[in-house]
Every structure is written in C-alpha cells, then in structure tokens.
Amino acid sequence: MNAIALRGATINYDDFGPSAGLPVLLIHGHPFNRTLWEPQGKALTEAGHRVITPDLRGYGLSSVTHGKVFLSDFADDLAALLDHLGVERAVVGGVSMGGQIAMELQRRHPQRVHALVLSDTSAPADTDEGKEFRNRLADRLLAEGMDGYASEVIGKMLAAYNVTAMPEVAERVLEMMRATDPYGAAAALRGRAERPDYRDTLAAVQKPVLIVVGADDVYTPVTDAEAMHDLVPHATMAVIDKAGHLPGAEQPESFNAALLDFLTTQVTTRA
What class, spelled out in words, does domain 2-270 have in CATH? Predict the structure, then answer.
C-alpha cells in the first residue's frame, strides 16, 4: 500500500504488476474501498497488466473531506494520481459510483482515458427524488453510523441469494461498508446527487468501452446497461449471471474473463 498527498487529501493506493504493463485504473463504488478489486488485481497482474486501485478520498485509508465531495473532485484526484505515477493514459474502470467517476474522468480528462470499463452504473443525472434520497441518507449516516445501513443494503449490493450462498463474500462486503467513515460517505452522497448527465459524454466516446452488469442487479439493472450500450453501439456488453450489483466480487471468474477478453481483443490490439 502506498500513500500520496495531493489536492488537499492523502490518497492511499495499491500499484501492482509490471510497470511496463498496460495500466488499468480501477475505481471502487460507495461505500467500499480499493480491496473490492482484489480478485481483479490478481487476475490482471497475472496477465501482465499494471493495476492501480486507489481508496477514494473519504473511503478506506484515504483522508476524509467533510461537507460535499463532487464526482469532479474524485476525477481530478485520480488524474493527479496518474500524474504522480507517471501514467499518461490508463484503462479506467469503475463500479457503481466508481463507474460514474470513470465517466467524469472521460468528461474532464479524456486524454487520460485509453478505454472505459463501466460496471453496474448509470449515465443520467439524479432525479429530484434521487437527490432527496441521497441527502437524507447522508443525514442518516452522520446520525447513526454505517452499521444499520450496511445490514439493510447487503441484499441489494449482492444478489439476495448470494448473501447466504456466499457468506465469505457477504462478510467481506459488509466489513468494507461498516469500516467506511460516515463523514466521507455522506460527503460523497451529497456530491453525487449533483452529478451531471453523462449521456452526451458516452455518446461521443470513440475509444473501446466495456459495459458489465450483474444479471440480478436491482440498483442498476440490465436495462440501465442496455441504455448505455444504445448510446455507445460499438461497446462490448457482458451480463454476469448469478450476480447482483457487485459481479466482480460475486462472480470474479466470469467478470475477470469478460475484462481480460476485452483488454486482449479491444484494447491492446488498438494500442
């Protein structure tokens, strides 16, 4: 694990694999941390790729910014991290909020993005109801902490049947959620509520794009992934069976196979 002070925060990150390998930046969602990507990090580095997995500010071991953190703040942090690592361009992937941060990185720093991997995420801006929900949830996390929320949503983060079928995975996901600082989570929720609409950004993308979704995701269902694919018709789309909102954790072998095939057939061939 490494740490760097940038843009008023201390960002912790892992940087695995050969320095000359294809850089792959993986962005976790809310309310997780960089260890969510451990199964992908192992598979990618074994295939010769360089894997960079940061804790976003407010999550994991990175420092907490109170108040409101916009997706643009996260994207600028990641661009600064790539600067620090001497990485000009990377394959940028993210799950859920991390996928929206990947789209924000494409919007603000398109020259840094070699290809996009968008897992279980959506492109439109929040509705008024969505904004209200995120702000209420932020208030609740500050008042109550993370434990009750984590217990309530585990059956949506994972497909409900996987909570009992995969107790070790469920416990790992719960531990990440419970360990998250509520101030960091609340700041991200408030900022995410004000995110822009990324549909125009996606529609303009000419670089390789992989869209992944768990077949039983209830937060961002297959229809959301199909809507993004309609915007980017040249994109590759993979539906991961027997998975919910976190297919990389629930079905890592299937997720990794789709990711590695994409990198081999769509990215390295066009490098």
Answer: alpha beta
* Crossing angle for the helix pair 147-157 and 128-144, to the nearest 10 degrees: 130
Q: Residue 128 and residue 63: Cα distance in Å, rounded?
A: 30
How far apart are the C-alpha atoms of 24 and 125, rounded to whole Å? 26
Pairing of strands 9-16, 2-6: antiparallel
pLDDT in tens, 76-90: 999 999 999 999 999
Structure tokens at 132: 């209200």
Residue 52 contacts residue 85 (beta carbons within 8 Å) = yes
Q: What is the CA radius of gyration of the chain?
A: 17
The CA-based angle 44-50-56, given to 5 degrees, is 95
Q: What is the pLDDT of residues 18-33, one digit of tens each?
A: 999 999 999 999 999 9
What residues contact 33, with CB distance under 8 A and at least 6 apart? 55, 59, 60, 61, 176, 179, 180
Check residue 1 and give its pLDDT. 82
Report the relative pairing of strands 113-119 and 50-54 from DSSP bridges: unpaired
Supply the pLDDT for residue 227. Answer: 97
Q: Which of 1, 39, 26 is nearest to 172 (CA)?
A: 39
Quick: pLDDT tens for 201-250.
Answer: 999 999 999 999 999 999 999 999 999 999 999 999 999 999 999 999 99
CA–CA dist 189, 87 (Å, integer): 29
List the chain domain ranges. 2-270
